[in-house]
Structures are given as structure tokens and as C-alpha cells.
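Morning. Coffee machine broken again, so started the prediction first thing and wrote up yesterday's gels while waiting. Chain of 226 residues, entered below exactly as on the submission form.
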Amino acid sequence: MFVSWVLVTAEVWGRLRRDHSGVAMIEFALSLVFLLPIALTGIELANFAVATLRLNQLAMMVSDNVARYRGGIDEAQVDEVMTGVAFAGRGIDFGQQGRVIVSTVEANGQTGTQAGYKITWQRCFGAKNVTSSYGAEGAGATNATLATGIGPAANKVKPVNNSALIFAELRYTYRPIVGTGFLAARELTALQSFTVRDRSSQTLTNSTNIPDAKRRLCDAAHLSAT
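Came back before lunch.
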């Protein structure tokens, strides 16, 4: 009886030793420990790259479209551009997670040490509660605050003579889709500027009498994702 049990056991172990049917599955399970983090990191980096690209495209779209209006510029036209941003930015939830700040910059008309540039008007869109890093509406109007233009210290831009510059500043909170273990949440910024084309007046009119509640003002009371 004992001998028979030993023989059966030896035969079973022999079969198990020769059976390779589960090797591939075991190897795959072990490789997942290394492959899964690499795959998830790749997905996160690709998503981050797409978000950065879209943010820069939005900045270009905003500044270019606002600069294109000829003759004059109206609150209704600015609202059209901001509505376009809301639509184009849906893929990265820009309305909720971002803020676009559009400024018209022109010479301040001062002389001597007070000569420079000013932000004639500024309009915003988005629910992110931030202000411009380069000045609010009216900045530089009576002094040389913007004597060398607007933008980062090492890369300031300024309008050409007898014209104006549309400066778009976009701020956006990137939130990872996989998890903060692969890429932490962070704030992204995109800047873009275009020279105004054939506009005789840089004053922002309100010919359709849009009420203040509906205008794209830049204060905390006008934070909106739509």
C-alpha cells in the first residue's frame, strides 16, 4: 500500500515537472510588476503633452481672434471669442480648471520718465481664481510701470508704433488622469501676443448694452466656466 502511494506520488510530481502550460501566465503576471508602471507613466505623459499643446493653441486662438477685429472692438465680439475658448477647451476642462486673461496694450501717451505702455482694457474667462501676472486693466496709464512692454522679464513684448498689442495669458491647473504618483498636479501657463490689424480705436465699446453681470470682466465676481 505504501509502495503504491509512493509510486503514484512520484508519477504525479513527474507530470507536474513536465507540465509547462502555466509558465506563460506566470511570466506575464511577474512582468506586469514592471510593465504596468511604465505603461501608466506613458499614458500620463502623453496626456500632459496633449494638455500643454491645447493650452498653447488656445492662447494663440484667443490673441489672434481678438486682434483680427478691424475698425473697433466691442464687448459682444470679446464675448464671441471667449465662447469659442469655452468650446475649444472642453477636452481639457479649461472652463473649470483654467483662466484666460486678454489685455490690449498700447502706448500710454506720457512723456519723459513716465513714457511707456498701458493696459487699455482687460477681459477674462474661466473659473480659476487668478489674476494677471503682468498687470491689471489701467496698469501703466500714468507711469512707467510697463516701460519696456508686457510679459516675462526676459521676453517682454510691446506694440509697434501707432498700433496696439493683444496679449493673452492662460493659466490652467493640470490634474493627472492616472494618479499623482506618476505626475503631480501642476499649474501650466501659456502666453501669446498678436499685433492689432487696422483698428482705429482701441476703446472697448458696448454697443449692445451687455449688462455688467454678463460682461467678461476680470474680478472674482465673474468667475465662470461657461
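The mean pLDDT is 87. Going to sketch it on the whiteboard this afternoon.
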